[in-house]
Automatic annotation (TrEMBL):
Taxonomy, superkingdom: Bacteria
SUPFAM superfamilies noted in UniProt: NAD(P)-linked oxidoreductase (SSF51430)
Residues annotated as domain NADP-dependent oxidoreductase: 23-311
Species per Swiss-Prot/TrEMBL record: Microbacterium kribbense
Pfam families assigned to the protein according to its UniProt record, in alphabetical order: Aldo_ket_red
Name recorded for this polypeptide: Aldo/keto reductase
Amino acid sequence: MQGRAVGASVRVPLGETGAQIFPLMLGGAEFGWNIDLAASHAILDAFVELGGNAVHTADSYAGGRSEHIVGEWLRARGLRDQIVVATRVGAHPDNPGLGPVSLVRAVEASLQRLDTDRIDVLYLDATSGVTSIEDTLATADWLVETGKARSIGAFGFTAEQLVEARILASAGYPRITVLDVPYNLLRRQDFDSDLRLVASAQSMAVTPSHALAHGFLSGRHRSRSEVSRSTRGVQLAGSMNRRGTRTLRALDAIGTELGVPPAAVAVAWLLAQRIVVAPIVNAFAPVHVHEFVQGVGVRLSRAQLAEIARAVD
């Protein structure tokens, strides 16, 4: 069996941010939405106990409740200086977009909810559009200079926008050093194109979200009759087809061979992509954390990677 041991000693550089992190980020997308404060804190505790030290959330998750839950946990556990806190701004209805005024207000609101004086990785969410990348980066520069943000990441940027941002960085604006993009075994089209080439050329640290395809790649849900008509149920049902079934079978087989659950194999596949530094993985319960964290200790062979590729393609 290939190694499964993980722990606090496992640390990798998060690109050019200066942070050293466990090669997984715990996502807070479910906090305050499908999971209450107590359950969220139990998940966060489990992650830290297994060596995790980076948490990802967003001001738009549950209308800001996710950030509040993370902030409550950081304060209660006294762990702020040990945790790399990453949050995404730009999609909250009170401060939409990445214009200078909205961006500053969004960061101030996030800092208050997170109960902290700085954000370690500030992801700029461009999904609603960016009027001026120069204005956005000028504002980000002020946020970095004042210590409110330590490094800048991107979400929803096109390859062309990242190129423009790098040109502006050569003129003194802050560099975008981390990239969050939806990416997993079943969803590769958003990244496996010009975006991947640009991210690689710019030596960005890629922290892919939706690492388990909304939980489908954990193998817990395999038929449409098992899921509800909720938003999460619709997301899961979208993967329930022949391709999804083939993929789960491959994960099952490799997981049995290695002695790990399917979620760990899905995470290991992401970590086998050289440009990926730390997948962002969400959990509904501590047991889920114990499952996907095992992926850090798995090294897939060429034969196993080929087996996965055949199932997915």
